[in-house]
Amino acid sequence: MLKTILAEVKEYKFASIMTPIVMLGEVLMETLIPLVMGMIVNVGILKSDMNMVYKLGAVMVVLAALSLTFGALGAKFGAEASMGFGKNLRKKMYENIQTFSFSNIDKFSTAGLVTRLTTDVTNIQNAYQMVLKMCMRAPASLICAMALSFYVNKKIASIYLVAVVLLGCVLFLLIKKTMKYFNEVFRKYDDLNASVQENISGIRVVKAYVREDYENEKFKKAAYNVYKLFLRAEKMIVINMPLMQLTVYSCIMLISWVGAKMIVGNTLRIGDLSTLLAYCMNILMSLMMLSFIFVMITMSIASGERVAEVINEKADIVNPENPLFEVKDGSIEFKNVSFKYNKEAEDSVLKDINLKIESGQTIGIIGGTGSAKTSLVNLISRLYDATEGEVIVGGENVKNYDLESLRDEVSQVLQNNVLFSGSIIDNLRWGKEDATEEECIKAAELACASEFIEKMPDKYETHIEQGGTNVSGGQKQRLCIARALIKNPKVLILDDSTSAVDTATDAKIREAFRKHIPSCTKIIIAQRISSVQDADKIIVMHEGEINAFDTHEKLLETNEIYRDVYESQTSGSGDFDID
Amino acid sequence: MAEESSKRVPKGGGKRRMQGPPPKVENPGKLFKRIMGYVGKKYKFQFIVVLILIVISVLANVQGTMFTKTLIDDYIRPLTKMDKPDFHPLAMAIARVAVFYAIGIVSTYFYNLIMVYINQGTLKGLREELFEHMESLPIKYFDTHAHGDIMSIYTNDIDTLRQMISQSIPQIFNSIITIVSVFISMIILSVPLTVVSVFMIFVTMFVSAKLAGKSGKYFTAQQRDLGKLNGEIEEMMTGQKVVKIFNHEEKNLERFNELNEQLFDSANNANKFASIMMPVNAQIGNMSYVFCAIIGGLLAINGATGMTIGKLVSFLTFNKSFSMPVNQVSQQFNSIIMALAGAERVFKLIDEKPEVDNGYVELVRAEYDADGNVKESIMRTGKWAWKHYHKDSDTTTYVPLEGEVILDKVDFGYNDDKMVLHDIEVYAKPGQKIAFVGATGAGKTTITNLINRFYDIQDGKIRFDGININKIKKKDLRHSLGIVLQDTHLFTGTVRDNIRFGKLDATDEEIFRAAKLANADGFIKRLPNGYDTVIKGDGGNLSQGQRQLIAIARAAIADPPALILDEATSSIDTRTEKIIQEGMDKLMKGRTTFVIAHRLSTVKNSDCIMVMENGRIVERGTHDDLIEQKGYYYRLYTGKVA
Question: Between helices A240-264 and B28-69, what is the axis angle to 10°?
């Protein structure tokens, strides 16, 4: 995990190395300053030598200025290194995500990817900065202060050593225990928030059943549990402060006693006493800092692992070595194809599919929820790879094509489609970057989208909100069809893409297809019989298998499932939801 | 799977609040007072104890530092001059200091411990109040606020409050006490040196303010760039599959890289200036030390203003512990402002007006006496009646609960200035099935929102069993109206709990019966733990159809006389729908039902179909009538123009 993410430091390696080095400089200055302070007292003030005080004062000013320079440089390098690291991590993840196949995306889920790109990177970035700045600073400060203490006075320094070891051990145990408690708290806390989320989105149900009081009781119980767990965890943390005070105070008193005796015995000078007191604080502060770093690192480990997962994920569909760039025609063939989303799964989603579609045909697909209609068409543009068997488009196995060429020729309108923020024409040009305005208008006309676009105030320049929230379901579907048509593909797949379009418009779109793109193979998945009944042939899918593949009339005669669906929708159409 | 989990991401609430320049808060004093009011409500006594303990803890610390002076001036220097030094008095002095230290440590422990209780207790209370108040808010609130924003009140805003109460306030108090006591001690030790120290503090504050101004500018830029980048990430991750289909990866990457670089620039600058603050402050503190040492040294050598070596050494220690709390106060001040902004949002929700209910007609258990009159009953009769008190005649009448619903010339708009429903007339006799069809946005769902008073109408009347629904207690009105929505919202818990949601005191027998009626019993039994299978995350581990069946069972167990089915089967394919339809038909039997659907099979057998267009009912009648009319419905139905 560490290797993966640290590889992304890249051009910020210099800053990353410089940060701890200049921090080391700062620490050195900071530890020297109390020494000089002690000397000011010892050789200057106590001996009433003002000259010495000036000299040492000047030395101290220089040291402070150096320290400031190092500190400022540390701030600069630290910021650059950590922000750059975060930038590179995001970039690397995003780049890799662009190569992901559908199954890679499914594995992480949209929300999962968003969190990894945002919150997780921020966590790592902050921890990285902390570590760069403190990983040298804290131990160095500890060691320097300790060494100088020994230099000033061995006896007193050994008191520190004992205190540091003792405090260090206790802190370590304390942190380990509280971390465990806190992890538990955060899990419960997430549950609590999830229940709030449920209540917000399901408020209509709560209100309709008059269950406000019931939900309040439930929430109170959950809130009480979180409260109790938080108490348990924070009660542990509370020990930290007094523990620290205990150590510092004990040291001070021991030094006072031992120091006084030594001064009287002439083995210590008064100035040394103040130096030692200052180092005492330095040493214990660094120790606290170290424990803080430890916590930061532990907390960001989970984020690091999540990010590394995305970076290390191998796209499972890649271009072949010597790809074909041209798809000859729109013929499609499935040879003994089986498919599973997950290799470990027991049952196949598609079972032993054999199918032949000629170029230019219109094919309808009908079948119940979960009958694998979508899974079937997803293999054609190689959104997923068949687990067994061959999928052949234009006479070649889809695995032999250049992915981009294949997907340009096999244009698919997804079931859950997405429009992007931008103008309508921008969205249409997703299909073909350099499409002229005429091409866009023509595609919109074919998809029966021009009729409502023309009515909009800004026509083709109308701004679409993120996710297409400002157009209705039916309008969105028609825009998505137009976007797919602009590619001028050899195969067009509509996956339940006219479900929110009224029957009349639906028929008009199909009519336009027949007239204007006769050579394109059209595959239409639909719930409505009316959307498929005039197709050349209709596939009836049932539990992952092709139950029948024939014309509307034949199917009515011979196929029970088809007849069932037909009768449940009776004549004409079935849907009223129009625009 | 992708869709399931993305559903749980609060929509529209993607703005993450990050550290940055303090946001603008109106009336911070009032807000602060209100927060303290919450703390004080339950924990006034404890809070005062905490303040006292903090004072003790700080004083213990200060006396320790003062001891350095005593140690040097009163013990060490005299002792060095003695031939036979007697360490006994020193031991006693150290023991005294130790006792004070011990008291200080104990105080520190207890004030921190009590703070934990105060903090967590206050938050628990606040969370409960928030939630309880949220539950009382009208549907309008949820329709007009992004769910992600409401959610972030519970997570981000409460969290900033937690930090403020548990850390900022005690620390600021601690710092202030330290500043005051150190200041007093410094004055006692030496007035001129105190002046020098205070002057240096002002220098620190001046430089900090300059730096903060500079970094603030970059923080604003960082915030803006972060928002842009996160927005892009969210949009593109949601559309990643479309990106693949259109081979848009390269172009996407270009845009992303541009935004990513922009963020790096502003974040780098913001961060740089913010981190320079620390060394700058520390070194100004060191300068202060040098100046004091030089001036103090001169004074001590000349013996002017009563300066002694011990005093100087002591003072120098104080000098260090003077600048630290001052820096702390300014840091904590920032986080308090942040917390106040969070508090503002918390209180905004709490101050939101709850749903008002002026209804007085109640639903009571009923029985019929020998003459067929309705009477109130204390027994479980299975029959219900509306208890209607008439003020003008001081009489109470009982109307049996039957489920008749009348909409009489109803006009409605979400705002007063824009009506979305015009002159709606619907007459549903008990047990009838009324269907609404029409385009998206024609106003079908809006009508159902009115019957259970999720929204109140502007003009006209809605009557339930002949009683104006404004007179009926909302709770009782809603009890008599079941509802099944297109988005089935199930709650985390077992399948059993979810069905029981419709009737809290339902026996297992009743649950099984309801599940059987909804055709859900079969699949529930096949789940790994049957009725005790835990549903997680809004039912993500069940199929859409299965979730819908549970929702139907939930409505069935409530056994209301009237039902609203809003697109309840639209996301299910026709074959699966047939199975659900059976359950639905059983559920609808004997109940007044309002059905919204765009599928013919669902509406065809209705007693009356209302065809809606632009907020008006344009055609009405049975399926056969409407086909006969050859109007709008006919066109929709056949796809032909008559």
Answer: 20
